[in-house]
């Protein structure tokens, strides 16, 4: 009750999390950090040992990074703190990371995925559905699937015939659906159970889909024949998320619960696939997001690093800060 009044000024606002850098305890202690700049996040390229090789773009919040199939272009969703919107941007990694805008408007555009030939990008507009537009930036936008329901991660098959997406349903949670891009174009469930299935990724030969499921009680990475039928094979050994294929189909990467980037060997066994040895590539720093993508050579990873403070002052501690309220 009553009028609001300031108790601290110049507090940093972290664009990487959209949170101001302060915290109040239950016993009257306030901590906050001030500074001349804002914290944010940045994309980086690392090698298979986790060593940083190059930074991409400015300090800004980048979400859902996806590389084109040739690794030359990068599509990301960028958050605008003022308008509270997210639009898609493209980076040309061959031209000093030059950036161009792909979508505009007061919408939340996320989860961009590239067509196999790199000429189109499909993406999700929250509350509206799945759209596709030319990657060169023209205004020719097409709605592939209209839906106000919850839709999540997308992927586009290498033969260009299907888009996989995650759909939230009451009773079954997250399910993986497939949208055919020819014929009747009627979406249908690919994996639907009482458990959550998420983060689908097509293999390059189109014969398998990697995904995560919590059927064991925690998220694990699986591969399953596409379009089916067939048996799912568990790849991760002690939990995992964010599966990404190497383009040769012989390795599948994922992130373990303890922030390690893992590589699982995948081999053919007749008409099916089986998982081989799993090794640790590198441990991610805590400021690295779980989201990432892999370059075509399998030797470099595109990562999101959260916080980069700029010229910050020490943290200020105020004891009994609420005494003035009386």
Whole-number average pLDDT?
Answer: 88
Q: What is the straight-line distance between the termini?
A: 12 Å
* Discrete helix count: 0
Largest sheet composition: 4 strands, antiparallel
Strand order of the largest sheet: 6-5-28-27
| Helical percentage | under 10%
- If you compute it from the alpha carbons, what radius of gyration comes out, rounded to the nearest whole angstrom? 22 Å
Structural class: mainly beta
Which band does the percent of strand residues land in?
Answer: over 45%
List how many beta strands DSSP finds: 29
Map the helices and strands:
Layout: E1 13-14, E2 19-20, E3 22-24, E4 29-35, E5 42-47, E6 52-56, E7 62-67, E8 73-80, E9 85-92, E10 98-101, E11 109-114, E12 120-125, E13 129-134, E14 142-146, E15 151-156, E16 162-169, E17 173-180, E18 188-191, E19 197-202, E20 208-213, E21 220-225, E22 233-234, E23 241-245, E24 251-255, E25 260-269, E26 272-283, E27 288-294, E28 300-305, E29 312-319
Antiparallel strand pairs: 1-2, 3-4, 4-29, 5-6, 5-28, 7-8, 8-9, 9-10, 11-12, 12-13, 13-14, 15-16, 16-17, 17-18, 19-20, 20-21, 21-22, 23-24, 24-25, 25-26, 27-28
